[in-house]
Every structure is written in C-alpha cells, then in structure tokens.
Amino acid sequence: MVSIIAESVITGKTPSTKDESNYGDDVPFVTIPDMHSQIFTTKTTRSLSKKGADSQVKKYLPPFTLSVSSIGTPGLVTINPEESQTNQQINSVIAEKEKIWYLFLAFDSLKAHIENMGSGGSTILNLNKSNFEKIDIDWPIDKSALIEFNTVIEPIFMNILNNQREIDSLSMVRDTLLSELI
User: Fold this and answer.
1) 3-state secondary structure the chain
2) Which residues of the chain fall below pLDDT 70?
3) Are 102 and 140 in contact (CB under 8 A)?
4) Digit-coded pLDDT (tens) for 19-43
5) pTM score of the predicted model
6) Which of 105, 94, 93, 42 is nearest to 69 (CA)?
C-alpha cells in the first residue's frame, strides 16, 4: 500500500486567489494542466509567491516528489524536480529518491485502476487521500532488487530530466527571438 511505502502523502491546496500577493515567481504551483504528457514538471502555468507558499507551509513538496492527479482527470503522474506545491486535485507521494523511479512506473501503469477508484457515481472523478493511500503497489521484497533496478533506471530518468530542461531553455530562446522578429 502507498501508506506503507511513502514517508507521507500530501494533498495540495490553493492559496486564496482573492489575495493577488499569494502568486508570483517563487514556488512552482503544479496543477493538472501542467502534468499532461511529461514525466517531470519542469515548468508550471502559475507560481506562488513566497508569501502564498508560506501561508500553507505544510504543503511544500521536496524535490523529486511524485504527484498523482486524483480529481477530474485522475491518474496523471509526474515528478516535481524542485521544491513546489500543488493544488487540491493532486496527491503527492514523498518517499526516498530511490523509491520514486519505481513508484512512477507503478503509478503510470495503474492509471485505469486509479480512474476506476475515483468513480463514485458523480460526473467528476474524485479519489480522496485515504483511498489513494490504500492503493496496492507491487513492491520488491528484496531491497537489493530495488537497488539494482535504480542502478539501471535512474540514469535514464536523469537524462529525461536534463533533456526536458534543455527543451524548456530552447523554447524560451525561440519565443524571445520570434517576438523580436515580429
């Protein structure tokens, strides 16, 4: 179960949007649109100010936290490569970095199961935190198997992260150059 494997599970929260000073450029604020079609959430549509993030200090996520969407579009999985926060539609699994790669692949393969868990007769799919923590994950019994797995898979994930950051950087340069041409 997730609750046994994880150090903790944090359900995100949105700071008051009535106070514009809660938003800025200090802390990435991950929402479901930021999670589509990528392994790492390297950029977000919105960010929080230090003030906004500190208004919900228990919602900070350390680098290499796994985030899983649980409301609306359940089952999207990403890894936050830097300290961030999420909104209430996302449950985040804080675990040792050595567990994150395996957990990412496990949750990614459970998308249909997560969708089914979130359907309760309403039109909006919703998987609450307590049910999320009860999700069964096939976990290697032998710790040496996990270590061996990480030896092979971690460099691949880190290459993906480096490539994503390079794409983000090149996209910024492209956008800057295009705006100067127009």
Assistant:
1) CHHHHCCEEEECCCCCCCCHHHEEEEEEEECHHHHCCCCECCCCCEEECHHHHHCCHHHCECCCEEEEECECCCCCEEEECCCEEECCCEEEEECCHHHHHHHHHHHHHCHHHHHHHHCCCCCCCECCHHHHHCCCCCCCCCHHHHHHHHHHHHHHHHHHHHHHHHHHHHHHHHHHHHHHHC
2) 118-125
3) yes
4) 999 999 999 999 999 999 899 999 9
5) 0.87
6) 93
